[in-house]
């Protein structure tokens, strides 16, 4: 029996995924969480075989969750199910140790097969995204990405500095670097372009 934890902030979708996966005789949904921090607690408590997670969630994103699982060397395999059909997200997911990356409009049986494949040690990646992923490389560093994401949420450089425990000057440097690398005029344009490419 493959033990699964679901992390998805939309209650209806979480319920539907749970119901669909429970129809499979070899899959058991042992728990679910509506945000990244709750999912992290449940991963530690339930020790599932596979975590099925969305990318965009309150608290921790699915990618940050995967990174934390990898950093703590937990034997939990991560499958992302998302609406983000962007190569940049897939590249970051693979870098974070994610074993599966499927889109939410894929057939339900594809998810069950992906979970089985991942549990056996394989990978399950949307084929078109896999082709696109090796096109344009993400030029941003982790810190530039963090600063840009917060800038896109409307925080000032001082507020970003406070949140990331950095100096005001360091944050300005990160934002300036990101703007330069993306070849745009300001931080909002940089945020929009990076979002569009799947780099945030």
TrEMBL record:
Alphabetically ordered keywords of this record: DNA-binding, Phosphoprotein
HTH luxR-type domain boundaries: 133-198
Record-linked CDD domains: LuxR_C_like (cd06170), REC_DesR-like (cd19930)
One matching Pfam family: Response_reg
Domain (Response regulatory): residue spans on this chain: 3-119
Residues modified to 4-aspartylphosphate: 54
Annotated InterPro entries: CheY-like_superfamily (IPR011006), Sig_transdc_resp-reg_C-effctor (IPR016032), Sig_transdc_resp-reg_receiver (IPR001789), Tscrpt_reg_LuxR_C (IPR000792), WalR-like (IPR039420)
SMART domains: HTH_LUXR, REC
Protein name in the entry: Response regulator transcription factor
